[in-house]
Amino acid sequence: MSLKTIENMVDWVEENIKENPTLIEMSNYVGYSPFYCSAKFHENVGITFKQYVSKRKLSLAAIEIRDTQSRFLDIALKYGFSSQEAFTRAFVDAFGCTPSQYRKRLTTIQIYMRPNILLVPEEEFLGTLKD
């Protein structure tokens, strides 16, 4: 599986993040088995497909909390949480504060950014030139 295919998987997840993307849907999109996609996604992204979806949903929700005055319930439902309570529990588990505390700027959080799979780290690039 090429890095371009991994990038296509990440792109697909990002485009479908609000529709609760599944591993099976993603694997159908790229044309490989769910097992193979899962293994290659984990190998190249560094976390499982399920962890990625969860981290990105919470990070995008956090950005929305910071940048809008949308109700927490509306943000929770937008990102696939069953209730505001479920969203708040997941937010606290991920960031160590409630959405309300974050909106009031009582704390700083570390959001999970979308990886750029095709960007080769400089050390790897320089390592290949020395060989």
Automatic annotation (TrEMBL):
Record-annotated HTH araC/xylS-type domain positions: 7-105
Keywords attached to this entry: DNA-binding, Transcription, Transcription regulation
PANTHER family: ARAC-FAMILY TRANSCRIPTIONAL REGULATOR, RIGHT ORIGIN-BINDING PROTEIN
Listed name of the protein: AraC family transcriptional regulator
Native source organism of the sequence: Tissierella simiarum
